[in-house]
TrEMBL record:
SUPFAM superfamilies: Multiheme cytochromes. The keyword Hydrolase does not apply. This is Polyheme membrane-associated cytochrome C. InterPro entries: Multihaem_cyt_sf, Multiheme_Cytochr_ET. The keyword Signal applies. It comes from candidate division KSB3 bacterium. GO terms for molecular function: oxidoreductase activity. It comes from the Bacteria. Keywords: Signal.
């Protein structure tokens, strides 16, 4: 598929129409007509993007959702054709001009968003704490550690940046009862929305503007002035928030594998590139091989406790910018998932040197800041 500036030479002496930002957009993921996000349904019969996917994987589907095509707004009425991408008109139309709210998968409506609402409609994920609790309730499991064949993995989907950024307000993560969580990660003035930090056309992070405050050459090395504790307990207080989260991910993965061995009776492993991501580790070697990472080998020995932890693990893995979007919220989710698994492990994962929140004025999840 090729893109070019629109021309009206065929209708007389009309001047060529210059499409603003065309070159920027043409090199972005939104214009990549060969990407899996737009080609996934090529082998289906019929060749079409299902209504449940069309909103975010086709231009007609998004316009259908907005009601621009004359249909009822707020839902996709029918499958969309393949061979479309996210075009200019997808995001620039009469509906998006006035759109400033988004209903998250939890059912919570975020309002007064401004132009970032058009981004968040697709970058919100497809599941939430409500989804996980609903799956557990429907399975009617006896207790938190009973395996049920009626439980399956609940997947948040890809690039759920809004879930990370809006924290407990959106309820994108599995938040444990009795714990307090960070809410919207409010950055400095002028850098608080999607398009404050990303080009809306190339989608790239505006790193030159980040560098005005952050001196690290790699954004993964950024650590905020208020990050005075060792979140993952590895003794390194200089590493970036990205690496602190990596450390907690490793601890949670260890806890899930130990838990599966002790309580589920089937070893578990994770492969980020293959659906449904969690698989039975047939030889219990701690690794998921190519022949194990197949759909028919998807993990099927879920307990409610393991499902909650796996959901949070996946959320943290599928938002590549989680450390910038809402790092402290992600840290809390990972820490609490480990702590919950630890309550029933014969040898708990050591969290003695790890921390889930900051000290004093930097502990944004605490009652002094969350009371209202």
């Amino acid at each position: 598929m090729q893109w070019a500036a629109v021309s009206s030479q065929d209708v007389g002496a009309q001047p060529a129409v210059e499409v603003p930002f065309l070159e920027d957009w043409a090199g972005s993921g939104h214009a990549d007509a060969d990407a899996e996000a737009f080609r996934h349904w090529d082998e289906d019969d019929p060749q079409e993007v299902p209504a449940r996917c069309a909103k975010c994987h086709s231009s007609p589907g998004y316009l259908d959702f907005l009601g621009v095509d004359g249909s009822e707004a707020g839902k996709v009425d029918s499958p969309a054709p393949i061979d479309t991408v996210i075009e200019c008109v997808t995001c620039h139309n009469d509906a998006t001009l006035h759109k400033d709210s988004v209903v998250m998968p939890s059912g919570v409506e975020l309002t007064d968003l401004g132009s970032e609402a058009r981004c968040m409609e697709c970058h919100q994920g497809r599941a939430s704490k409500v989804s996980v609790d609903g799956a557990i309730e429907e399975a009617n499991v006896a207790d938190a550690d009973t395996v049920s064949e009626d439980l399956g993995f609940v997947n948040i989907h890809y690039y759920a940046a809004a879930a990370s950024k809006y924290g407990k307000i959106a309820q994108g993560g599995y938040e444990y009862e009795g714990q307090a969580y960070d809410a919207n990660f409010a950055h400095v003035e002028g850098y608080e929305s999607c398009t404050d930090c990303h080009s809306p056309h190339t989608l790239e992070v505006l790193t030159d503007e980040c560098s005005e405050c952050h001196t690290a050459a790699d954004l993964k090395e950024v650590r905020m002035a208020g990050s005075l504790v060792d979140y993952d307990g590895d003794g390194n207080l200089e590493e970036g928030i990205y690496h602190e989260i990596e450390g907690l991910q490793a601890l949670l993965y260890m806890a899930m594998q130990d838990y599966a061995e002790e309580h589920s009776g089937t070893a578990i492993g994770y492969e980020s590139h293959n659906y449904p991501y969690f698989f039975a580790d047939a030889n219990a070697d701690g690794q998921i091989s190519e022949d194990e990472a197949v759909r028919d080998n998807g993990y099927n020995a879920w307990t409610p406790r393991l499902l909650k932890a796996a959901y949070n693990y996946q959320l943290s893995k599928k938002d590549p910018g989680m450390y910038a979007h809402g790092g402290k919220y992600i840290i809390q989710l990972l820490y609490d998932s480990i702590a919950d698994l630890n309550t029933v492990l014969s040898t708990p994962v050591d969290l003695a040197e790890a921390h889930r929140i900051d000290h004093g004025h930097f502990a944004g999840s605490e009652e002094a800041f969350r009371h209202w």
